[in-house]
């Protein structure tokens, strides 16, 4: 009897779907990249449709560079139309805008739309995949390799929670992505007059306070995955869970990660971009001095009860015209309890062009009149 029971158990284990043996997860704060929670975050796993975070990143960069526009019209290929898995049933020859395709990728995780956009940006899906892996190397990530743009299972297609969080962090530099990823439901109008009702695969968008993205995933190999992002009180968190056995556990673990971050940490703003830093001399400029400003707010991720003492030192290098807003001309070094913890770039408040002969004449004349020469 015991042998019979063991045979039955073995049979069901063999036919049951295989998920990752132990899930991996990570929680980071977006502006600093600081890791708040970590479990097997460098372990290779199938990312499923979270792959599309990289797909979307390259699309956003193509828009920012002017290579493509949201209003561009994309003709759907036979290849894109034939994609399985989650899709919006695009037909060969159908024409959709870049805006519509991005929306369907973010809301419905549409594989056909992802391939259509890859082909539009790079010419072929294969060339786009190379761009994806080149971007992985550019970001310095060591545990990711892509073989497609949609995330359907492939032998050498893998990532890990840490790398997915870093790719999501890069994607979030493009604010427009949240316009799409925060949509809970919408309609996609087809060329034949019909409409596809799209409901976001990330149900937490509707229920978790501050959550406005980013991307779910599921295959038999990957299990249930989710890269989520939420913002409260000026602090944005990114969480990643991979290899979950149910949607419910995926949501539960994501909520636990985000709750932990929001309940225990805060971003402390010590100086903002309006803080007056004084002026500095400009050599060979149309003006002799220029006001200084921070390139971004000086913040520090701290515990809720933080009462540390902060200090800072400003270092400005010699500035020679021309100098433009955004050029780094110095740093503000931040100290916590006497120990340096971070550096923040300082730029100029206004651009200063290089002086010409007429400018030098006016300056010298001014000095003569004032009696300083």
Short description:
Helices cover 32% and strands 28% of the residues.
What does this structure look like?
The protein has two domains: 19-267, 3-Layer(aba) Sandwich (Beta-lactamase); 272-370, D-Ala-D-Ala carboxypeptidase, C-terminal domain (Peptidoglycan synthesis regulatory factor (PBP3), Domain 2, Sandwich). Helices cover 32% and strands 28% of the residues. The chain is built from eleven helices and 17 strands. Strands 14-16-17-12-11-15 form a six-stranded mixed beta sheet, with no helix packed on it. Strands 2-1-9-8-7 form a five-stranded antiparallel beta sheet, sandwiched between helices. A hairpin with a 5-residue loop joins strand 11 and strand 12. Helix 2 (52-64) packs parallel to helix 5 (111-122), helix 2 (52-64) runs parallel beside helix 7 (161-171) and helix 5 (111-122) packs across helix 6. The protein is globular. The chain starts with a helix and ends with a helix. 37% of the residues are buried.
């Amino acid at each position: 009897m015991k042998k019979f029971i063991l045979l039955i158990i073995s049979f069901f284990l063999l036919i049951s779907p295989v998920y990752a043996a132990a899930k991996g997860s990570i929680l980071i704060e977006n502006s600093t990249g600081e890791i708040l929670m970590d479990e097997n975050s460098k372990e290779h796993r199938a990312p499923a449709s979270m792959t599309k975070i990289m797909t979307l990143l390259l699309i956003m960069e193509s828009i920012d560079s002017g290579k493509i526009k949201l209003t561009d019209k994309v003709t759907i290929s036979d290849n894109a139309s034939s994609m399985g898995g989650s899709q919006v049933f695009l037909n060969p020859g159908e024409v959709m805008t870049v805006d519509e395709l991005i929306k369907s990728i973010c809301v419905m995780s549409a594989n056909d739309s992802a391939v259509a956009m890859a082909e539009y940006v790079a010419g072929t899906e294969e060339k786009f995949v190379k761009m994806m892996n080149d971007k992985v190397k550019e970001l310095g990530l060591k545990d990711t390799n892509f073989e497609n743009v949609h995330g359907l299972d492939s032998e050498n297609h893998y990532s890990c929670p840490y790398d997915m969080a870093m790719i999501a962090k890069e994607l979030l530099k493009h604010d427009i992505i949240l316009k799409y990823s925060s949509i809970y439901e919408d309609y996609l109008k087809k060329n034949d007059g019909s409409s596809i009702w799209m409901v976001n695969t990330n149900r937490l968008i509707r229920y978790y306070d501050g959550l406005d993205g980013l991307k779910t995933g599921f295959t038999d190999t990957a299990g249930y995955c989710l890269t989520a992002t939420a913002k409260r009180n000026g602090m944005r968190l990114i969480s990643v869970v991979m290899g979950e056995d149910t949607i419910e556990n995926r949501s539960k673990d994501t909520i636990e990660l985000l709750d932990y971050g929001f309940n225990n940490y805060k971003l402390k703003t010590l100086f903002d971009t309006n803080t007056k830093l004084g002026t500095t001399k400009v050599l060979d400029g149309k003006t002799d001095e220029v006001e200084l400003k921070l390139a971004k707010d000086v913040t520090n991720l701290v515990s809720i009860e933080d009462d540390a003492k902060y200090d800072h030192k400003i270092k400005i290098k010699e500035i020679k015209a021309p100098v433009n807003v955004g050029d780094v001309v110095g740093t503000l070094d931040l100290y916590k309890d006497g120990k340096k913890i971070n550096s923040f770039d300082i730029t100029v408040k206004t651009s200063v062009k290089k002086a010409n002969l007429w400018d030098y004449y006016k300056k010298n004349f001014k000095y003569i009149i004032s009696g300083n020469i």
